[in-house]
Fold:
Amino acid sequence: MATDVQQVTTPQGTPQTPTSAPIEREFTVKSRSQTQQALRRFMHNKLAMAALFVYVALLLISFIYPHFYGWTYDHQDAASLSSPPGTNGHPFGTDEIGQDLLARMMLGIQRSTYISVIFVLVAGSVGVLIGAISGYFGKWVDNVLMRFVDIILTVPILVAIIVVAANFPGARSPIGIALFIAILGWMDLARIVRSSFLSLREREYVEAAHALGASDKRIILKHLIPNSLGQIIVWGTLGAATAVITEAALSYLGYGVQGSQTSLGALVAIGAQAAETRPWLFYFPGIAILIIVLSINLIGDGVRDAFDPSANRNR
Amino acid sequence: MLLYSIRRLLASVLVLLASSFLVFVLVAQTVDPLSIYRTRQPPPPPEFFEQKREELGLNDPIFVRYWHWLTGVLHGDFGNNINGNPVRPDLFERLGVTARMVIAAMLLAIVLAVIVGVVTAVRKDKPVDYVATIISYILIALPVFWFAVLLKTFVAIKINEWVGQTILYTQGEESPGISLYGTTGEIFKDRLQHLVLPTIALAGITYAAWSRFQRASMLDVMSSEYMRFARAKGLPWRKVLVKHGLRNALIPTTTVVALGLGTIFGGAIITETVFNWNGMGRYLTQNGLGQNDLNVVLGWLIVSAFFIVLFNLIADLLYAVLDPRIRLS
Structure:
């Protein structure tokens, strides 16, 4: 920037437009990349932005507020066992051993967030890798990989996780659960990426890149993946929501996160055992799951519309 | 069409075979059928385990074990459970119980999905659309078991209190012992009363996503040229919607529904747990995994894989019947 200014004020002292400076274009549109356009469309989607705001606010509260909050998640307040919301300084009440529900819920939201993030990263990488190889190389590679996907899909994901988790109780930490869900949850992304690659690789610009001598790796990384990014991101947001729900289901069936390592699912599952006598233990964590999943889904729909404004929403 | 069907059928059989092997390896590696003996006090001597392993064929190579099990299943023998009784009668009885819930829920979900999907598409951006959309989004975001408990507390118990007697049962698939002393009519009525809540729970969660799909495909169809043409040549709008619109808009939904049936089995496990139904789901979690019963887990998985492959095949064939372009490519 500094050199620009110098150029303008030199040499005769009268300001002159140097040839290197951008030409003023009053009526033309500023050029934007595809991602920038999508971002702009997303920001104009009020519902999606509201959902994003709610989600981010919820995460900020859950990650920051515990440091200032009076109760820790494992403190057992003997003076208020099973106290309803708003009593004895527990805004959301306590469970039967006097642990503060709000503190536990904030920890649960943290855990559920870790699970979502790990799931999306791991399953996302595997899904993109398998889908990319399958869609780009086609022929027998595609056949082998897609039949493999078909075969894995004959086992309901929830059941497969239960079978594995039932026999590795030691691995049922939040990370372990996330990995279980991820190992069995990448198939639909692989299918999405594959079908996107199948149509993209026939485009002229891919042919042009080939003709210029670009390697397979370069074409996949520089041309195909960026053009499938919208669909991958949509899968990612919806996948994050699925991970939260799946974790809750696992916990409810008794194969989820164990012991003091609580999660939202574990909290609801424990609350469900006494939904009539201590309803707050059941309703508050359930509402938290509802808000999280609902806002992630709305964000996902917003992203879908932003990347593909012409397409109808599927959900 | 015949050639296409035969090809798809062969592919399905191969997928099912490969799946059965995958399932067998997974389960054989993780489920230890001797674990009930390991917690005994005093612990049995090592020779006892060795003898048991030999007896159950656990020492054979995995391919041999798989072959024994597979040939058994093909002859209708699913092996014995840990108490030495054959798995098959239990498995099929449980399958029947689950089928009641799943079939009822599916029918309800399909009807709801099509009606809601079409109405919201036709009345796009009207109050009906907004209300239905909000409800679907909330249902999609709810864990099944949470929704089920809400139904129990705010629907079933309230209705029962209001009427003054038990109309809707919240536990079990039938009143204990009714199949022994009840008449056919009584059994039917009793089972129906037990069926209502789980069906609503399962259908409510399922229809929501399908109705969004139906709405999208209906909107897609409504903006197409042939709809405008049908309208332009003077057909009444209602007739255009049903004859030209709905017919075409149902095609994508058919596939989604058929493929979705596979996941229903997973959802049914949770629903059964909430309502204490002694169906397939509880057979898997309690008898199978709860007791480390190898043959029960295997039997469950192969039956569910069979239905998933079957419905995938049906989806493929239906799609080809409804949309001739598919089988030509």
About this structure: The mean pLDDT of chain B is 81. Chain B touches chain A through 49 residues (CB under 8 Å).
